[in-house]
Every structure is written in C-alpha cells, then in structure tokens.
Write a structure and sequence with these properties.
It is a single chain. By secondary structure, the chain is an alpha/beta fold. The protein has 2 domains: 89 residues, no CATH class; 114 residues, Ubiquitin Conjugating Enzyme (Roll). The protein has 5 helices and 8 strands, in the order αββββααββββαα. Helix 2 crosses helix 4. The longest helix is centred in the middle third of the chain and has 78 residues. The chain is rod-shaped, with a radius of gyration of 44 Å.
C-alpha cells in the first residue's frame, strides 16, 4: 500500500517538474539501470544515510513503512525540484551545444551548396550562351546555303581562284578529295619570349560536310600532340577564333579558313 502511495507522489512530481522519474526498490545485490533518460528515486534501507544525492538520482534510506511516509514525502519535496533543475540545465546545455553545432555545420553545408550551385549555374549560363551563339550561326549559315547571294557554281570558281594563290606561298600543297581539303604547310616555327620552337610540317584537314577542321603533324609530334593548341585527337583549341572559323567553314569560305588557320598555327597563346 505504501509503495503505491510513494509512486503516486513521484508521478505527481514528474508531472509538475516535467521530467521523467523512475521509482526503484533496490535490494542489497541489485543496481539501478545506468542508461535511464531521466531521474531515479532509489529506495534502499540505509539507517546511516537516509538521503544520498547523485547527479541523476535520489536514494532514500527510510524503510517503506507507513510510519516513514511523511519523511519520505518531505524528502521528495526537498530534493526532487533541485534534481529536476539540474536535469533541465543539462538538457538545455546539451540542446544549446546541439543547436550551435548544427547551425555551424548547416552554415558550412549551405555555403558549399551555394558555391556549387553558382558554379553549376555559371557552367549552364556558358552552355546556354554557346548553344544560343551556335544556333544563331547555324541559322545564318543555313540561310546562306538555301538562298546564296552568289550562285554556287560561280562561288566555287571564285573560291578556287583564291585558294590556288595560297600555294606555294603559305602552303606547300592543297589537295581535294570527296570529303576533305588537305593543306600541307611549310616548316612551322613559333617564337615564344624570343625563343624559337620547331613545330614541324603540319597537315590541315577541312571537312566541309561537317564544318570541322583538324591538324596533324607530319614530322615532329611531341608527346602525341601535333601543336601546342591541338590535342592528341588532332582537334584544335581555337579559343577566340572558334566562331570565325565555324562561320567561314559553314559558308564554304575555304580561302578565308586556310588563311586564318595558317596565322593560328604560327602563334602561341598561353591562355
């Protein structure tokens, strides 16, 4: 009967103090669970120390008999509020630590996320710009091909009359086959900061059906690269002249394309 009264009082204090409180009767050999997430009120007869306080527990040494009910009640009233205050302070401190740590980690992750998003957006904006520019250029070229200003046969004759002038001044030879124009250069040297570098004899290949150009090194490939601005697949890193070459090839301006590429292969740009 007294145990029910004591547990009822402990339940009242738990409700009032907003803290979980577990009442436990201990024997000489038993120990309370150490992983309880609240306060514990331990009842174990101890006539020498009727009250023992720990960080999360109150040990009551009064025997559980009716004569001790008032003493037990007073002990609970005297000590549980202070234990509850300490409990809540620990909880607040832990919550503060958790929130502050979470805020810092969240700030770091958000900063990283924003930087990654901005980097992605920059890349997408560049892609959109390139796509828009290429689309407009393609439209322009298609219009010229569908409705040429100069009749095509006349343009071909005029173009050849210009192209043949490139030999032997700028190129050793220029040949035509079913798909390609192949222009063989003289020895190419590049001057960088007063020092001259031997690049070699190059073959420039124009694919008119695709509007593409490639460069091959016939005599002095270095580590698989035909030229400082040409990758190992013979694709040209044109930089600022890319749009100009695309337009020239698209409009079948062969003379202009070969002249531009001749100038390009004799220059070196570190960027």
């Amino acid at each position: 009967m007294i145990w029910e009264q004591v547990t009822a009082q402990i339940g009242f204090h738990a409700q009032k103090l907003n803290v979980p409180i577990e009442p436990i009767q201990l024997t000489d050999d038993s120990r309370p669970a150490s992983d309880y997430d609240g306060l514990q009120v331990l009842f174990k007869v101890n006539t020498d120390e009727p009250v023992i306080l720990n960080e999360s527990s109150l040990q009551v040494g009064y025997p559980l008999i009716e004569d001790n009910l008032k003493s037990i009640t007073k002990t609970l009233e005297d000590h549980l509020p202070a234990l509850a205050n300490s409990y809540h302070q620990r909880q607040r401190d832990q919550l503060k630590k958790l929130v502050l740590s979470g805020v810092e980690q969240r700030k770091t992750s958000l900063t990283t996320s924003i930087q990654e998003a901005e980097y992605t957006l920059d890349g997408l904006n560049r892609q959109i710009f390139e796509l828009s520019r290429n689309r407009n250029l393609d439209k322009h070229i298609l219009t010229l091909l569908e409705k040429p200003i100069i009749p095509l046969n006349k343009k071909i004759l005029d173009e050849y009359a210009q192209v043949k002038k490139l030999v032997p001044g700028l190129y050793q030879s220029i040949k035509f086959d079913d798909r390609h124009i192949r222009a063989k250069t003289h020895q190419v040297n590049i001057n960088v900061d007063g020092e001259e570098f031997n690049i070699g004899i190059l073959l420039i290949e124009l694919d008119l059906s695709r509007g593409q150009a490639k460069i091959y090194n016939l005599t002095n490939t270095v580590n698989g690269y035909p030229h400082p601005h040409v990758n190992d697949n013979s694709e040209i890193c044109l930089g600022n002249v890319s749009a100009g070459l695309t337009r020239l090839l698209g409009e079948f301006e062969i003379y202009g394309a070969l002249e531009l590429l001749h100038k390009f292969i004799h220059e070196y740009n570190e960027s």
